[in-house]
């Protein structure tokens, strides 16, 4: 049986099944990337809810695994060489799980790097911009008298979603016929933009054709449906 006692996070959130991959997360657009990926791959795992509303990601135990204090993070008892490994950053975790399982990342070198390219695009652009737009449109930022920040993020979010719209022209998934970690990285963010954030009108979402069809295909996948709710909200 793997020994996780050297990881402080395992003391605060004990593993009932230490032989399984441990997921420390919350169902945000970043968090569900990993739960969706785990559901898609079928890897055995155990999910621990990190209540970000209660600042649990800033506890010493969580920071011992992710010094950046953000979800998600994982602890894999069967890492490289059979040794436990802890990882943070959702994009890095997606690549790790894809390589571990041989799924959702093309074997062809050129296609592999192009897939990673789109994951990096989501990490650097789509996620941060959509998140800022959500803050200034729905949360505390909505009360700001100066609306220029919201306009800035709305304009950039509209540009980014049209990059995705153009990419999906004639394609079922971001990489073409094959569903990959690029799709997994983006699905939750687009869903949040038009759903939870209610910002579809700000980016003229109704004028798009390819992105809504792609989102509908993605949300229809059983693993995506399950992963969107893991871990359950408190």
Automatic annotation (TrEMBL):
GST N-terminal domain span: 18-105
Domain of life (superkingdom): Bacteria
UniProt cross-references to PROSITE patterns, sorted A to Z: GST_CTER, GST_NTER
Span of domain GST C-terminal: 108-234
Annotated family: Belongs to the GST superfamily.
Name listed for the protein in its UniProt record: Glutathione S-transferase N-terminal domain-containing protein
Organism per entry: Ancylobacter mangrovi
């Amino acid at each position: 049986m793997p020994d996780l006692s050297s990881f402080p996070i395992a003391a605060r959130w004990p593993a009932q099944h230490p032989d399984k991959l441990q997921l420390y997360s919350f169902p945000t657009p970043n968090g569900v990337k990993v739960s969706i990926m785990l559901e898609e791959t079928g890897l055995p795992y155990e999910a621990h809810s990190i209540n970000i509303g209660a600042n649990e990601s800033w506890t010493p135990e969580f920071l011992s695994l992710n010094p950046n204090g953000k979800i998600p993070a994982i602890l894999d008892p069967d890492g490289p060489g059979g040794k436990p490994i802890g990882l943070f950053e959702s994009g890095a975790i997606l690549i790790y799980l894809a390589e571990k399982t041989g799924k959702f990342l093309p074997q062809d070198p050129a296609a592999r790097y192009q897939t990673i390219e789109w994951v990096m695009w989501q990490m650097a652009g789509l996620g941060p911009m959509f998140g800022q737009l959500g803050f200034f449109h729905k949360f505390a930022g909505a009360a700001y008298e100066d609306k220029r920040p919201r306009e800035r993020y709305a304009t950039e979010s509209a540009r980014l979603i049209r990059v995705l719209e153009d990419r999906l022209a004639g394609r079922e998934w971001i990489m073409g016929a094959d569903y990959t970690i690029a799709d997994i990285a983006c699905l939750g963010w687009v869903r949040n933009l038009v759903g939870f954030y209610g910002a579809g009108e700000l980016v003229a979402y109704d004028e798009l054709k390819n992105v809504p069809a792609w989102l509908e295909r993605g949300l229809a996948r059983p693993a995506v449906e399950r992963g969107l709710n893991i871990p359950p909200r408190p």
